[in-house]
Specification:
- The protein is mainly beta and about 160 residues long.
- Helix content is about 15%, strand content about 45%.
- Strands 1-3-4-6-5 form a five-stranded mixed beta barrel. Strands 7-8-9-10 form a four-stranded antiparallel β-sheet, covered by helices on one side.
- Strand 2 and strand 3 form a beta hairpin.
- The longest helix has 12 residues.
Length: about 160
């Protein structure tokens, strides 16, 4: 098995996983610097990473999230089996860029004062509740939320 000490830049693919003997394991997605020269459907390279350094393990488990761009240094070992990912034993970690905060696309909760609404990408109608969880009604679309809340306030004599 060939090994090389190197630096690799890539994105964290999934939340790092703690392992035995105070180690952590995760996958890094690496793209070549000449990505424009590759075919559009060229697969990304996945490098399986592990570290037993307590400082690196702590940072990976507490400060890194999927999508963060990292520069890792360590010993890279290429698997003798074609198709198996390379393995990098990490001894240095630098966060180059952090991932954006994930945005929920399927369903989003929002608050309108004393009222909560549930936006669902698959539906035009919007369920409306009080912050205490009492059912208010179903607005026909997002533009009708204010009207539904106004009607509820008039019927109940004030806020939720």
């Amino acid at each position: 098995m060939d090994t090389t000490h190197c630096a690799v830049d890539g994105w964290v693919d999934a939340i790092p996983v703690p392992g035995p003997h105070d180690r952590v394991t995760f996958d890094l997605v690496v793209r070549p610097s000449d990505i424009d020269a590759l075919a559009d459907d060229a697969p990304d390279t996945i490098v399986t990473c592990t570290s037993g350094d307590p400082r690196i393990t702590y940072e990976l488990l507490n400060g890194v999230q999927p999508g963060d761009l990292l520069r890792l240094t360590g010993t890279l070992a290429q698997s003798p089996t074609p198709g198996d990912p390379a393995r990098l034993t990490v001894d240095g970690l630098e966060v180059l860029d952090t991932a954006l905060v994930p945005v929920l696309r399927e369903m989003v909760l929002d608050r309108y004062g004393d009222y909560c609404v549930v936006f669902d990408a698959d539906r035009d109608q919007v369920p409306v509740f009080t912050v205490d969880g009492a059912w208010v009604g179903l607005a026909d679309n997002p533009d009708a939320i204010a009207t539904l809340i106004d009607i509820h306030r008039r019927v109940t004599g004030g806020d939720a």
